[in-house]
Amino acid sequence: MTDQTPMIKQYREIKSQHKDAILFFRLGDFYEMFYDDAELGSRELGLTLTGRGISENRMPMCGIPFHAAENYIGKLVEKGYKVAICEQVEDPKLAKGLVKRDVIKIYTPGTIIGTSMLTDKTNNYLLVVSFEKGKFGLAYTDASTGEFKVTEIDTLKDLLDEINRIKPSEILLSDMIDEKRNREPCLPAGRVHSQVPSIRIESYKDKYDQSEAEEKLSKFFKIKSLASFGIENYSVGLSAAAAALDYLEDNQKTALGHINKITPYAIGQYMLIDAQTRRNLELVQSIKDKSLKGALLWVLDRCETNMGSRLLRNWLLMPLMEIDKINARFDAIDELIGDTILKAELTQRLKNLYDIERLTSKIATEQGNAKDIVSLNESLKEIPFFKTLTSKCKSKMLKHVNDLPELLELKELINKAIKIDPPFTIKEGGIINDSYDNELDELRKIAYGGKSWIAELENKERIASGIKSLKVGFNKVFGYYIEVTTANLSQVPANYIRKQTLTNCERYITPDLKEKESLILNADERIKELEYKIFCDVREKAAGFTKELQYIAEILSQLDVLISLAQVAQENNYCRPLISGSTDILITGSRHPVVEKMLGNHNFVKNDILMNNESSFLLITGPNMAGKSTYMRQTALICLLAQMGSFVPADNAILPLIDKIFTRIGAMDDIYSGQSTFMLEMTETANILNNATENSLIILDEIGRGTATFDGMSIAAAVAEFINNNIKAKTLFATHYHEITQLAEKHKGMKNLNIQIKEEGDQITFLHKIVEGSADRSYGIQVARLAGLPNDVISRAKEIYTTLEMVENDLGFDHRSNVPVINA
Predict the structure, then answer these.
(1) Per-residue pLDDT, 181
(2) Cβ 321 vs Cβ 657: under 8 Å
(3) What is the pLDDT of residues 579-611, one digit of tens each?
(4) pLDDT band at residue 779, thresholds of 50, 70 and 90?
(5) Taking a C-beta distance cutoff of 8 angstroms, is the pair 332, 400 a contact?
(6) Alpha-carbon torsion (741, 746, 749, 751), positive or negative
(7) DSSP tag of 647
(8) From 83-92, 435-444, 494-503, 781-790, the region with the lowest mean pLDDT
(9) Strand, helix or coil at 52?
(10) Composition of the chain by helix, strand, coil, percent to 5
(11) CA–CA distance, 282 with 276 (Å, rounded to integer)
(12) What distance in Å separates the CA atoms of residue 109 and residue 23, rounded to the nearest whole number?
């Protein structure tokens, strides 16, 4: 094989059209990679690099078995590569010369539909960003479920927050962003890359103005006006949406009928939770090891289906701002808690469901196999049970279950056509039931009757020839043959025609045997072809029910989430919160849902939270490890849980609608953007001060600790005053600067709280109880003792502390922190 062979010329031509992808070139039972692709594939996949030719003309090669391709593709896609699959696209028997090949599919991180590369409990989003008229257009879609949404965003900050919430697998940025970057300083494209470094990002050529985008989308959805979806005014977003469809069509190279609607939304429809807050509150992964355990989602997710788990995650990251919708979720949870038998029976039925959402997408895009269709049918069989169980339900969301379509026509089709336990492959037969197709039944009689005839022939020839060891066999090279051992060759009948000589035997054929062989083999081949054709027809008919199936998936996913939330609430004694028209926060017996789960329900110390006009800004003091951060976090989590529609870990809760939650907790250098701990702290604090409103909730922990004492305390005091006097947001502000507690005496709305400590000599015990008033010291040396510092270090620290205390008293300083008293 050289560079001049017709096959390599064909490869080069196809590769030239897919320069940015690794090309898997089908040769027999293998996908081969050549040249640079081979070297890259060998390195990334740990494959042996081979080659053809000698010295400088050697052509690098490596390959993988085609039946194991998905595993290798998954590894490359996970690393951010594109993989193009090149197959034979004509029957080799009909080909004149070289078999025609072409790329039939391109895998990228954001365009995967029906494979094991997907994570079951999280969505797989492709996100597209356009820019025009001073706005960002944002569209995102999950090709594996059909979800498609569009919005418009005014600032880069909000864009990055939304990208971090969505967590796409792949991002496309309009080339218009780079073109406008010099004229519009709000568009530092590099910032997008640095803020989402783990996501595959590439630029695309933005070719759509508003009218062209409208035409593209209208044609795709087969509608006359985009007003059908309420997106006609999203001019910048439409460009991103059209580009997303282009990208999917180019890569999937198949129908996308499962994407049958596009949903507009505004970020103001949901509580805003920026990336830093999601991290600090550990909503979907723990800070410690980025695992699910230790995150809020770990506590909440008791879903029985993958589609339910995906929806729960979305509810958690998008808390509602509409009281009616929140109460609708509360009502359903209330009803489920009140009827434990109903909840248990519904849970049992959910266990029988497959992932209807993704099965539907696979079938609609011609990627589903017969097992997928059977799994879908098994799920549809459960619908009558769900409807019966919810027939007497009162809450609106549970009543939706009773309205589900049963799709009797589809179930009947699948029951008649598809075998109960079909193979995974769809081109090797064994899929279609007997009596479904007359032609198929006739072919089966020929094939299977013919095989019985072969067995009868063997017995007949043994009797006629007297050769008891005579066998009738088959192989792919010679077809059917009669085998006679060397010892019996003298008894071979005259009509046998020698076909092959082996060491210990001879193989023969007869005219009758070859005639029957032709009938049998042709029947086998025709059966496979016809079964595949019938299967594709059944799959196409099933795809015609895509909208109904997606609706079923949506309602049953909601049911799964509601039952999960009800189960968690019941097991952990959560209460139904009241979302009032007031701005007050009143929570009695509050707990942290995750810490409580870790410690055990009876080991967590409850605390009350009251925030109103007289105490909208809580100054919290006390030693480290005493529970300040837990107290603040649980307040934020309770507000968030309530607005996602969940009951909350408290005895009682009356809450306002919170538009945004901000947190500034802990310190960590951002080495990628060159920001020190203190710079990052100040940047995040600036974000809060510039974006919070009076309807926001702010959690600030140890502002100003990253610099010198005077500077830090001055900044902390100024930030506290600015929030209290200007923004007026509900704020929990933890500090070790005890002097700041004096602000509560000067500013209306500020109130001091501290963590109760039991002190016995040099020993302290954390009581984890929040009480009014400020702490008089930080107990730092005692905490250091608890942390396990050597006794010599502790003793020396006490000596130094006593010395500093004496000096500071002489100088007129406050001995608690080595700074003068604030005169607020």
Answers:
(1) 47
(2) yes
(3) 988 999 999 999 999 999 998 877 899 999 999
(4) low
(5) no
(6) positive
(7) -
(8) 781-790
(9) strand
(10) 45, 20, 35
(11) 10
(12) 16
Report how far residue 271's alpha carbon sits from residue 314's, in angstroms, rounded to the nearest whole number.
Answer: 12
Cβ atoms of 640 and 299 closer than 8 Å: no
| CB-CB contact of 174 with 142 (8 Å) | no
According to the model, what pLDDT value does residue 672 have? 40
| 271 has pLDDT over 60 | yes
Instruction: Place 552 in a pLDDT band, splitting at 50, 70 and 90.
Output: very high
Using a CB cutoff of 8 Å and minimum separation of 24, what contacts does 484-487 make? 484/508
The amino acid occupying position 431 is: I
* pLDDT-based confidence at residue 1 (cuts at 50, 70, 90): very low
Torsion of CA 728, 732, 734, 738, to 10 degrees: 50
* Per-residue pLDDT at 194 exceeds 70: no
Q: Give the percent of the chain with pLDDT over 70.
A: 89
CA distance 170 to 177: 17
Residue from 235, 248, 241 nearest 216 by CA: 241
d(CA 50, CA 59): 8
Number of helices and strands in the chain (H, E): 27, 27
Q: Give the residue from 357, 167, 360, 141 showing the smallest Cα distance to 249.
A: 141
Instruction: Answer left, alpha or beta for residue 480, where phi above 0 means left and psi between -120 and 50 means alpha.
Output: beta
Q: Are 705 and 736 in contact (CB under 8 A)?
A: yes
Sheet (strand 126-132) strand order: 200-204, 170-174, 126-132, 135-142, 147-153, 263-264
Amino acid symbol at 62: C
CA distances from 53 to 6, 7, 42 (A): 16, 15, 18
Q: How far apart are the first and last CA of the chain?
A: 85
Tokens standing for 603? 């080991």
Average pLDDT on 432-450 reads: 90
As a whole number of angstroms, the distance between CA 333 and CA 647 comes to 8
Of 200, 137, 132, 135, the residue nearest 167 (C-alpha):
200
CA distance to 26, 28, 62, 89, 432, per residue, from 31 (Å) = 4, 8, 9, 15, 30
DSSP string, 539-571: HHHHHTTHHHHHHHHHHHHHHHHHHHHHHHHHH
Matching residue, tokens 């001995």: 815
d(CA 643, CA 660): 11
Helix (H) or strand (E) holding 714: helix 709-722
Write the DSSP string, 162-194: HHHHH--SEEEEEHHHHHHHTT-TT--HHHHHH
87 or 665, higher pLDDT = 87
- β-pairing verdict for 660-664 and 697-701: parallel
Instruction: Please give the mean pLDDT across all residues of the chain.
Output: 88
pLDDT reported for residue 812: 47
Closest CA to 165 of 202, 138, 134, 201: 138
pTM: predicted TM-score of the whole model, two decimal places:
0.87
Which pLDDT does position 178 carry in this prediction? 61
187 confidence band (pLDDT: 50, 70, 90):
very low
| Contact yes or no for 509/344 (Cβ under 8 A) | no
User: Residue 282 has what DSSP assignment?
Assistant: T
Provide the Cα torsion 709, 712, 714, 715; round to 10°.
180
pLDDT digits (tens, 9 = 90+) for 124-163: 999 999 998 889 999 999 999 999 999 999 998 899 999 9
